Amino acid sequence: MYDPKFRLALLISLIVFVGSLIHAVYTYMLGDRGLNIEDYITGIALVGSSIIGGVLFVVISVKFITFEKHKTTGFEATFRDETGTGFNFPVSLSKFLPEIIAPPLGADMHPLESELIGFLNGYRKWPYRLEFESDDRTTLYEHAMKQWEAMKTLPNCTSMHRIAALAQDLALVYAYKEKRIKHPVSQFWKRDTVSYSRACIEHGGYSALILSTIPTFRKLGKDKKSNQRLRRALLTAIRYRDNPTSIPANCDPLARDIYESLHKANQKSKIKKGEEKVFSPSEEEIKVFDKEVYSYFQAVIRDAELNPADISEKSDGVYLGDGYIAISIKELVQKFSLVMSPQTRSVFELWELNGEAQPSWSYFMKALQNFGGFTDKWDDVTSASGLFNLKINDINFNNMLFTFVDQTEMPDLRNALDSMPKFSGMIELQQDKETLLTELKRKAEAVNTMLSSSS
């Protein structure tokens, strides 16, 4: 009852009442005309009824009248009875009814972008992180706009990408609970004391649901098919933003592209102008990384193109038999990055892979070595970097590593590999001049040692 609107209504009513009383006293009692009982009573009745009617109208308007039933939520449902007659009725979603405040207008802005910014305008004071959980005092509105601005700088960014950037954290609207301490009417000038607590754990499902209630979300495409495709891609990318392993395998490529872009924009927004990011994972982050490499190793190897009977330039590698695999580290890292957690991908800079050497490559080799899945030696040749340039059946493969699948450790994967056709081709190691000289010196020293020991 004592919210700011009600206090404002009381203040306006009080001012009107005092002003009307002064006017009545001056006109009918102290003015030139003197006191006229009939005019006095009529005036008092008129002014009094006007004041009472005005106060009641304001109170009723502020307190009781609501237009929520007339808002379109995107969830108008149709029920058909046994005769096929359709009955349209709105589904009640009062918790998620969007309050769109002053949406911006722009020729280069999608209508849904505009409405999302209008929705976020109502949460300019809503925290992005709670006080007792983080020192970050950024609001939900500020964070969303920062992600939006970063997304616009990415190449191949479309309106769907920008919409996802604005909508990805809408779950916080429901996950945080506002507690407001109100002041009595006698202290109407004081602002309410507001604090926030956690009502539940936020996740992409809430964000996707709230996005779906924005009116223009229903009209994204030019026709029914494209409209359904765009809506599904947006909801999938937002729903599984923090859980990539649950993204459906047959999802639209646009959904995967939006998912990738959301995290790329997030990484970009964290880097200040003129500042270079330092690659230095902590010990705890390396432990998490090693655990994920071990967890996803079998799935990644199963997904790789390793068939010895069909080797081409498009192959990821080749299964050589007896558990040994020659695989491109570029393709291996790419496949791991698709299933790793967003936090790990951010720490090890696995969002933008351009085929060039990455600082994370050495961490992958160490992680594989921890469970015997990596060897830096082949055909009595040791590589200092752990990688080899190979020529397999007259096809050149650069930056290849040799990994091993143990029968006792991973029997199902090993059996699946052994069921492939046997490799019958030839493998040639290609080495540069310096590496070749180093290898010759090493072998010469080994021969000298053998001869001296025999003599």
Highlighted features:
3 domains; 15 helices; alpha+beta; 455 residues; two-stranded antiparallel ribbon; five-stranded antiparallel β-sheet; elongated
What would your notes on this structure say?
The chain is an alpha+beta fold and 455 residues long. The protein folds into three domains: 4-65; 98-270, no CATH class; 283-444, no CATH class. It is built from 15 helices and eleven strands. A five-stranded antiparallel sheet has the order 5-6-10-9-11. Strands 1-2 form a two-stranded antiparallel ribbon. Helix 3 packs parallel to helix 5 and helix 4 runs antiparallel to helix 5. The radius of gyration is 35 Å and the shape is elongated. The N and C termini lie far apart (104 Å). Residues 90-96 have low confidence and may be disordered.
Give a short synopsis of this structure:
The protein has 455 residues and is of the alpha+beta class.
Report the uncertain regions.
Answer: 90-96
How many structural domains in the coordinates? 3
Largest sheet: 5 strands, antiparallel
Shape verdict? elongated
Q: Give me the strand/helix succession.
A: HHEEHHHHEEHHHHEEHHHEEEEHEH
Number of helices: 15
- Give the averaged pLDDT, no decimals: 82
Oligomer: single chain
Beta-strand percentage range: 5-15%
State the end-to-end distance: 104 Å
- The helix content, as a percent range, equals 40-55%
Structural class: alpha+beta
Radius of gyration: 35 Å
Number of strands: 11
Q: In order across it, which strands form the biggest sheet?
A: 5-6-10-9-11
